[in-house]
Amino acid sequence: MPGENLTRDEARERAKLLAVEGYEVALDLRSAVGEHTGSGPRTYRSTTTIRFRCAEPGAATFADLLAPSVTSVRLNGRELDPAAVFDGSRIALEGLATENELVVDAQCAYSRTGEGLHRFVDPEDGEVYLYTQYEPADARRVFANFEQPDLKAPFTFSVTAPEGWTVLSNGAVDRVEPSGDDDAATTSHFVTTQPISTYITAVVAGPYHYESDLYRRTLPDGSALEVPLGALCRKGLAKHFDADDIFTVTKQGLDFFHDHFDYPYPFGKYDQAFVPEYNLGAMENPGCVTFREEFIFRGKVTQASYEGRANVILHEMAHMWFGDLVTMEWWDDLWLKESFADFMGAFSLVGATRFTDGWITFANRRKAWAYRADQLPSTHPITADIRDLEDAKLNFDGITYAKGASVLKQLVSYVGQDAFLEGARRYFKRHAYGNTRLSDLLSVLGETSGRDMATWSRAWLETAGVNTLTPQATYDAEGHITELAVVQEAAETHPTLRPHRVAVGLYRKEAPAGERPGALVRYARAEVDVEGPRTVIPELTGASRPDLILVNDDDLTYCKIRFDEGSLDTLREHLGELTDPLARALSWSALWNLTRDALLPARDYLELVRRFAGAESDIGVLQMVQAWALSALHHYSAPEAREEAAARLAEGALSELRLAEPGSGHQLAWARFFAQVAVADTELRLLRGLLDGTARIDGLDVDQELRWTFLAALASSGQADEALIGAELARDDTASGKRHQVRCLAARPSAAVKAEAWDAVVESDRLSNALVEATISGFDQPGQRDLLAPYAPRYFEVIERVWQERSIEIGMAIVRGLFPAAQGDAPTLEAADAWLDGHPDAAPALRRLVLEARDDLARALRGQECDARAAG
Which pairing describes strands 534-536 and 481-489: parallel, antiparallel, or unpaired? Predict the structure, then answer.
């Protein structure tokens, strides 16, 4: 990476010295269009005026800027020599006064990596689209600033752009006027923002398709609140844009948060921009939220996709309060915004929208992300130790988001919902437009709940690792429970045993009124506090013997759950008969954790999928179970058993596809899954027939997105050549089609293809971030181990150079995506260990990525051994 890191210590010293009064940022984006004739990167003019106070007159500090060149630097009226004060990432500032004005005129570079100001040319019509993405510290790629979250300030933006473009920023447009020297351009001047951090400022510019609406609400004091709403996307996606549904969810969310937060939305208007080649799911820029455009669905998707989009909309909206209004002081407390937004996304989804089963998705999908992250060697407390910006970049992980949200869900049970929300209300009012630490939030929660928040924080926020809860029951001769206990365990590396508020449910096979014969239903439940290594539950003593004991029923706490032997036997035979969808989701999740922990053979998990996934009613759970099945097949199955396992899985998938209700989301999910596991000639011929119209499955609409799914499977199997893939691109000559084409081309089983893909990603920087991602996805095919084998040693030879030369976003994509996991063998594990042992001084963030991939491989090898033992 370039020399652009910022340490926590440097940020703290600068925060003690400076107070920023305001920014004026002028960007001239006319250079985004037309031919680029220069030899260097395509650039634009960025002029920034910063007014700030200094607590120690005469002191020195620095401003942040990542730019190819600086034209001029003026500090308090003095012209400074750019060559002397600018080193490519920092501008040295000496001899500060009490009141200061810094003016920087720079040439900043358009990005092709999704960092800073990203420039995208639509292959469909040649139109240019721009947008910014900064978190954690890429605003300095666009304008000079003090790039740390606790130096908040008001921002006043002006943007010159080609006439006719839509130009947006955080504030509303104040006025638009001719640029003065160019009749084909206009300058948009924006209203000054409230004090916000640099990383959540935003600019979106281009010939975007824009739709508008208006949110109205009467506030408790009788005044009226009106929030102008906007939603925009590329012109090429306008025909697919369901802005009405986006506005519906947006209004529902604003109502919900106004009802619960007692603090009106503080940032004026609310635009939501769906932008191309976006690295993230979305970003909470106040007044100008950005999303990846894949949330605009070009073809048929399941309800899980609409639910997922709604959750992200609400997650980003929650940030308007948690993160934007009140911001963490430094990235150590990133959880103060991300954990809360993740929790509030699910909380409001269930409370305000049509997606009332959102907690099922949370239990099954989001927490799976957290469980994986919390068992990696890089796990960390929710309140993390973030030494610098590279640490911060990697901490946008399953711990900070999903574990943090899970812990907050537990906290709501611990202090009560009313006390939790009252604490949030006081937090907003007390710290509006300011910065906070962990102690600030704990203080208000302690006030409202009367609970000892320091003890809770030490157990849940300041320690790492996930606990395991297992039921332990004894019975009398008549089959009644004489004692039921919950045993709590922790890994040796993270031995903390935590207090858990859990529900324990007892289930048995019966046929109550309204249930199908043989249904597995709950007949008893106790909600208790589990503490220490063993907790007895007297409330369930005397209950008749259950077929299934489900610890953490209703998913109140964050833990891995295990089963006693009888319960596991019940699930092996009757998982599909468990009537409660949340209980089923929790059981699927627990069974997958058993597989990952090498306690359940992969063949057993795949057999459960084959037998019971077809009965899963929740489409989100089904799609998650299918994803786990792919991982079990390719990584956890014994190598010698994979061919047979794949055949059985494909046979089962095709059967479920034919049985699914025509036109349903389940049919679509099984069609996609079948394409991912199809290996036999007859199965591949069916995919080819579905593509060319010679085969048909009743109700299955093979739209353009599904066509690419089928074609990807054919390409990786050697059944689709460059001509066939090119013909499909001609049919879908769009930005999305181009990504699919690149992925399919790289997936073909050819040594020459793999060499070309490797060189395009590793040895060249000509590809945009989206095409890097697509190429890596195609390159790394689990069924092409021999073809990929030569790249295992090359990976370890190049990653340090890649990390030094490429932006952090691209570096992360390459280091994660090209790790030779497809080899799945001990020599690859040994090679990873050798690299780690031989590179102790490599960048800590790079070592972390390799260590995580190495741990996934070691876990997979343990799973393979478990599966091999089960074969006898």
Answer: antiparallel
